[in-house]
Amino acid sequence: MTANIFKRGKGLYSEWFPEYRLTDEALKSLQDCLLKMLIDFRDLCNENGIGYMVCGATLLGAVRHKGFVPWDDDIDIMMLREDYEKLKKVFDREHQKGSLREYFIAEPLKSEDYYFKIPRIYNRNTEYYAINYMGNPKYNMVCLDIFPAERIPENRVLRSIRSAAYDFAFYASSFCLDYIFPSPVIEEKCRENEEVRRFYSLRRRLGAVFAHLGGIRFYLGICERLGRYSGESGLAGLPSGISYSREIFDRSLFTETCEGDFCGYTVSIPKDYDRYLTNLYGDYMKIPPKEKQEIHVAYKIRV
Q: What is the rounded CA–CA span in Å between residue 50 and residue 44?
């Protein structure tokens, strides 16, 4: 059976490309690089009164492992939209002074040829080529994922409509990305693996349709508009695909913080981290069996 085209590609490509599995040494080097980036980011925020919290698997790692989830290969950060806007101004100022010369921020619809749905902070002195983005000539570097928390409508019907439309645009832009920047590594695998061929061919065919019916920037624009709700609301969340309908909480969750331990460093985490992690993972203190632990792959990495 053909894999679900809406399934998170990262897990699928880990399954299909075991030959590019990160060695323990490569994963450790990548985590060391990400840790330095996180601490530099933390220091910038603390020095300038900018609120932030680690989230997702990074928060899970801080609570359960006091550091990285052993098999994790990225850093997730969330912050209120107003804090993110403040971060950009401070980042630009410090970058001009040269103190952040190794980093830069890329944003949807603003940075040249940037076609992802969330902003990221990249380390220009690194290389990281993900299997599915091999055809994209830019932004193949180690990065921090930044999730601005936005107001979310309190009305369930309105929220459901916006969520469905957001998800449609989210996936349409993803299909466009596969069509515009086909990965030569995946195309090679398609010649020998029928499941990969069916999966990737369908995504690219849909991408061709959406690329001609609006184009990738059109769908990214929909995500941007629907991700930001201008009405009054006591709810906030992270519009990022399926998370639009999952990571929704009282606004206080994004403003009330406490200190967490991450690899011996103090970082900001939600005070009510239990509610957040339970919503995302269920029994989050239970370590999944080895077969459920995602294997991470990369075509090329240099840190």
A: 8
Tokens of 188: 């090679």
> pLDDT-based confidence at 70, cuts 50/70/90?
very high
Q: How many CA atoms are closer than 13 Å to the CA of 292, on its beta-carbon side?
A: 4
Q: Which stretch of DSSP H or E encloses residue 15? A: helix 9-16
The whole model's pTM is what?
A: 0.93
pLDDT of residue 147: 95
**Domain boundaries along the sequence of the chain:** 9-247+259-281
- Section 58-81 average pLDDT: 96
Strands 103-106 and 120-123: antiparallel
In angstroms, the Cα distances linking 247 to 54, 149, 254, 287 are: 14, 9, 11, 21
Per DSSP, the residues of 65-76 read TSS--TT----E
